[in-house]
Amino acid sequence: MVEIRAFKGIVYNWENMDAVDPVLAPPYDVINPDQQEALYQKSPINVVRLILGKQFAEDNDQNNRYTRSAADLAQWMEQGTLKPFPLSALYVYSQEYDIEGARLNRIGFICRLKLEEYGKGQVFPHERTLSGPKTDRLNLTRACRMNFSQIFGLYEDPQLALDKLLEEQMKKAPPAVEAEQDGVIHRMWPVSDPDFITKAQSFMADKDMVIADGHHRYETALNYRNERRQQEGGAAGEYDCALVFLSNTHGQGFTVLPTHRFVLKSDISADEALKTLASDFEISDMLQVSQEEAAGFMARLKEAGKEAVAYGMYTGKGAMRLLKLKKDAPLPNPPGSDRIDMLRKLDVTILQELILTKALDITREKVEAGGHIYYTIHAADAMKKVDEGTAKIAFLMNPTGIDQVMDIARGGGTMPQKSTYFYPKLISGLVFNPL
Prior knowledge:
Strands 1, 4, 5, 6, 8, 9, 10, 11 and 12 form a 9-stranded mixed sheet that branches. Strands 14, 15, 16, 17, 18, 19 and 20 form a 7-stranded antiparallel sheet that branches. Strands 2-3 form a two-stranded antiparallel sheet. With 435 residues, the chain is an alpha+beta fold. The chain has 13 helices and 22 strands. The protein has helices at residues 33-42, 48-51, 65-79, 131-144, 161-172, 194-204, 215-231, 270-277, 294-304, 347-360, 364-369, 379-388, 402-410; strands at 4-5, 10-12, 82-84, 90-99, 102-114, 123-124, 146-147, 151-155, 177-181, 184-191, 209-213, 241-248, 255-257, 260-263, 281-283, 287-288, 310-316, 319-325, 373-376, 393-396, 421-423, 433-434. It folds into 2 domains: 4-255 and 423-434, no CATH class; 259-398, no CATH class. It starts with a strand and ends with a strand.
């Protein structure tokens, strides 16, 4: 079962703030150095100082980004900048945004989730993780004893039963927090009504949860729990739970974007790669597509993807080719495909095995080692990197279907890195979970 709990979260003292936007930030793992500096300048109490503090050459075991985060946290609590919410609550959270000409509103709620080991309960990953980010997040958790960022969890509710309960709560009062960042309006309502909490807990009890974003955070939470249990003689504690945002995959505001790839280095030229690709793909004549015309090409790629797995291959100076997988092309056999056949049919799997590995000699191991491939959700940006000479080739993609994500995860499979981009990203700074 998925066990969720209401909790007294740590929140900013909203009542004493003129605006909430200056203290919020994107998730730590999408903040680059320039954005980090801008957030530092935005407010002396911006949450970036807690989730992704600066590093300095003179840092040591006693003075580093983690100890400074802990010191800022303690000072902000003492000053009343941060405070415990007075009642145990679930925190209803909505994100209103525009996409492809439509105005959408994704809704869900933030809660504590009782941690389960993968394979022993109803929590499922869909991607593999790397050790470096987990070490970083574990060091921060040890220093601060706090979850600052939500794990993004998915559940299925075709009847929208829980969505209707959430919408009822949203209509009862103005949001406690409302802020706009990057065109997305974030709103949050702490709800302490016992009847609502009980209904939400009962509803989730027999559901599966698939991790959308935050695999490193979830596994860090497991490691921290095990560490604390050992220290506390196996006693239960707040460290048995993690901070999670739950949202319905059938909700009106649910969007998955494609993650395009551009090749930074390969010893094989684009012309050589095309010769290899011809055995597995129908390759269009060269199309002239400018960066400004990227959106139009993506619409064409979407239509092509209804018939077969399809990609855009961009080699610079407007040169674009449409690749469509041949009906008789042999599907790859990635790890886990002996149990989950759908893994063989994923756009991201076919790209990795039949294009990157077979045609460009960029194996999974090379991708995971870094330096060969980079990613963007913006097709025009991928094309720009090629035009500038930063990248050799860009591959434009269709998004992974959410049904594919859910089925593969529940089957015990994992997808290649950057298989999904759930939009919009969750904001940091709404509510923290004390451990």
